[in-house]
Amino acid sequence: LALVRTDLANERTLLAYGRTALMVAATGATLLKFYPDSPIVRLSSWPLIAIGIGIALMGLVRFFRLQSRLHRDK
In this predicted model, what pLDDT tens digit does every residue of 37-68 receive, in sequence order? Predict the structure, then answer.
């Protein structure tokens, strides 16, 4: 039962990473869409998109690491 709870918590954490990554990347894309001529906005929007992708990748790595540790000990 504890393994199932940990599995579900791991999935919820992955979803939280996904939501955060989507929000950060969408903020960057929205800034880029509405203010395409502003160099300051362009300089801040591309890093936001990159950070969003980085958060998504970090969440996936953490998810699969814990998933493999949980099922290795089974």
Answer: 999 999 999 999 999 999 999 999 999 999 99
Does the pTM surpass 0.90? The reply is: no
Supply the DSSP string of 57-74, one letter for each residue: HHHHHHHHHHHHHHHH--
If we measure between CA atoms, which residue out of 21, 20, 11 comes closest to residue 63? 11
Alpha-carbon span 39 to 26, nearest angstrom: 18
CA distance 60 to 14: 7
Contact 2, 74 (CB under 8 A): no
